[in-house]
Design goal:
The chain is an alpha+beta fold.
């Protein structure tokens, strides 16, 4: 998971005979993208066509659907450019520039701890991001089309400023049926062999017209085969490979078990909710998909940390570094106390984990409408503060993304909102206890179900115009928000001080300690090992290399490439192994030897969904959509012998687009015609 400005090109050249140069790396960076939905993507034509996964655009597809037009079930095709439909909330970002700002950040926090460190660091990051946006928009570039983020690498050992070009007008061009995009369903999730066409094409628009791009990935004319060298660029969400043992123990013993129990119960409740009717199933499908995916992924993470041999290896790695630090008097004085400080911070977090996750996090308030209310209440409070003193998500550089979500015209359903809020409020009361002061303030004499129904039915926040009327970008409109009698606004306002207080305690006593001391351990690691180790994933652009390769699983050799013929052999006619009617009808026209999905040794994690797989000529050969079962421990380590990225083969995409769906317009565009 290498950053673009520290890619081991010489190492790749020595192993595979191809050495990526600066021009190649720059082109790949500019042809890559990320989505606001937490996925990766790529530009695949000069006219702004973007390729990503179906499950990365699932929310958009569902939001554009209705009781009479279910595009999730039936798929979506824009026959002409004019038929492409805007996604209510989707954003696509292109990474334009990376600047090292490590010294500026570290100098701002030098010698500080706790609250002083946290305040100084937030101020420094916000200042750098604001200056970056101001500089990029000097020539009249719209402020909303630029995004700047300071990225924390090596757990604070390095800080880079990433400047993005932001596209907020993103329109759906094509999506297949859910049945083929997620063929095999949850039983096949994180498994291989696979037979999925998990793809969607959207288009980035600029000033109402398709964005014109100088850098994009063309589709390869020769299909990829076993042992081929392949690269993937994407935005892996997070890894914890460089975390201390104290942090890993807290994850294993406290955080992961709690989350798994919560999500498992939520999954069961969602399945019951879907039994209420066809329409209820339609508008809750995306939520169930993400929850089931999360449960399986987190089980894999917990299994990895519970594996005695694996954890012993992590302990051994940390002890080896600590011994090298102890052996040097200067390093011992500078760095060794950092481990004890982090152990203390983790012990502190164990005391407040439930309060933090339920009061400030989303575990206690699963409701889009409550989310709007909290955003509005906090926007009003933060608007009157200097940019450097605001909560990070309300700084000027972050507001366009917040506004994209806040003013979304996506449909909301009272029945589902009441269901999700009731569930989460019930779990909040269970976790904190009925006598907790926050619980008493929150509920009064109401039950979770009564409170949820009252605020959902009574709120006007379903109306975008109403949300806009209460939104504050400066202090002038705070009075209207403060005097609002909307029940959801009143709820968010009533509990916000308590939620902010637990957030403050977490940031000052846990997060800032982890970051400050993570910086010290990172410096120690640099002194011992240099920068030959890539940083943990941070949800920002990375580049990985590998080969298309099989692997051994449970004593059997798994071949790396599946075919269309295999998909039809796996078809049972019953969900989740039922191919859609379009595929059954097209079978006589299809070449059943066409490669469908493949496995490769590229190092990926959640967030890499939608990543392009490309060859040394920077040509698309595949589209990542999953990992295998063995990759689920990838948060904590990577084993190239068995960890595999799973991708749709480019040949499958072209064959299906042309012969199953007849989308000749896109086929020609992908071919550069």
């Amino acid at each position: 998971m290498w950053t673009f400005n520290n890619f081991p090109a010489a190492k790749v050249g020595g192993k595979y005979g191809f050495t990526p140069d600066t021009k190649w790396l720059e082109h790949v960076q500019l042809a890559s993208a990320r989505t606001g939905s937490g996925c990766s993507a790529s530009f695949v034509s000069k006219d702004g066509l973007v390729m990503t996964n179906h499950h990365c655009v699932h929310d958009c597809i569902e939001q554009l659907s209705s009781a009479t037009k279910d595009y999730v079930k039936d798929g979506f095709q824009a026959k002409t450019l004019a038929d492409e439909v805007k996604c209510p909330e989707l954003e696509v970002d292109q990474l334009r520039e990376i600047t090292d700002v490590t010294e500026k950040v570290l100098s701002a926090t030098k010698g500080l701890e706790g609250k002083a460190y946290n305040d100084a660091q937030k101020a420094a990051l916000s200042k750098l991001e604001k200056e970056c946006v101001a500089e990029a928009t000097k020539g009249g570039t719209p402020e909303g089309s630029v995004r700047c983020d300071v990225v924390n690498l090596y757990n604070g050992g390095r800080y880079d400023l990433y400047r993005y070009r932001r596209f907020q007008d993103v329109r759906l061009a094509f999506a297949p049926e859910f049945a083929i995009a997620f063929f095999g369903g949850d039983p096949d999730n994180f498994m291989f062999p696979r037979y999925d066409l998990d793809v969607s094409f959207v288009r980035a628009y600029d000033n109402g017209k398709p964005a014109r791009l100088d850098h994009f990935f063309p589709f390869a004319k020769k299909p990829a085969k076993e042992n081929d060298l392949v690269f993937t660029s994407g935005t892996p969400g997070r890894t914890s490979r460089q975390h201390t043992i104290a942090r890993l123990e807290l994850a294993r013993d406290v955080k992961l078990p709690k989350i798994l129990i919560y999500l498992s119960e939520y999954r069961g409740q969602l399945i019951q909710f879907q039994e209420r009717g066809k329409e209820q199933k339609r508008f809750s499908n995306a939520t169930l998909f993400y929850v089931e995916n999360g449960v399986k992924a987190l089980r894999g993470e917990l299994a990895a940390l519970s594996d005695k041999a694996f954890f012993a290896q992590k302990v051994g790695d940390e002890n080896a570094l600590r011994q090298k630090v102890l052996a040097d008097a200067k390093m011992r004085a500078a760095y060794y106390p950092a481990w004890a400080a982090i152990e203390k911070a983790e012990a502190e977090y164990a005391k407040i984990v439930d309060e933090h996750q339920y009061m400030e996090g989303r575990y206690g308030f699963r409701s889009e409408l409550f989310g709007f209310a909290r955003q509005l209440v906090r926007a009003a409070d933060e608007a009157g503060k200097p940019n450097e003193q605001r909560l990070r998500e309300y700084t000027t550089g972050k507001l366009p993304a917040l506004e994209q979500q806040l003013f979304s015209a996506a449909p909301l359903y009272d029945e589902f909102e009441i269901f999700t809020l009731t569930f989460s409020l019930t779990k909040l009361r269970e976790a904190l206890g009925a006598d907790h002061p926050f619980v008493r303030k929150l509920f009064g004499k109401e039950s979770p179900a009564t409170l949820a129904a009252r605020v959902i039915k009574g709120t006007k926040l379903k109306d975008v115009a109403f949300r806009k009327s209460l939104y504050c970008k400066d202090a002038s409109c705070k009075k209207a928000l403060d005097s609002s009698t909307d029940p959801m606004i009143e709820l968010a306002r009533r509990i916000d001080a308590d939620a902010r207080a637990i957030r403050k305690r977490f940031e000052e006593n846990v997060e800032s300690v982890e970051t400050k001391n993570g910086e010290l351990i990172a410096k120690a690691r640099f002194e011992v090992y240099g920068t030959s180790i890539y940083p943990d994933a941070t949800g920002t652009h990375r580049l990985s290399y590998g080969t298309i390769a099989g692997y051994e699983s449970k004593g059997k050799w798994v071949k790396p490439i599946t075919t269309f013929g295999g998909a039809f052999a796996r078809h049972t006619g019953e969900d989740p192994f039922a191919l859609p009617p379009s595929w059954i009808a097209a079978k006589p026209k299809l070449d059943l030897s066409t490669p469908f999905d493949f496995a490769s040794t590229n190092d990926i994690i959640g967030g890499n969904s939608g990543s392009p797989i490309f060859n040394k000529n920077a040509e698309i050969v595949g589209l990542i959509f999953d990992g295998n079962l063995e990759s689920l421990g990838g948060d904590y380590g990577f084993d190239p012998a068995v960890n595999r990225a799973v991708s749709v083969h480019a040949s499958a995409l072209v064959e299906a687009l042309g012969k199953v769906y007849g989308v000749t317009r896109l086929v020609e565009e992908l071919a550069g015609k």
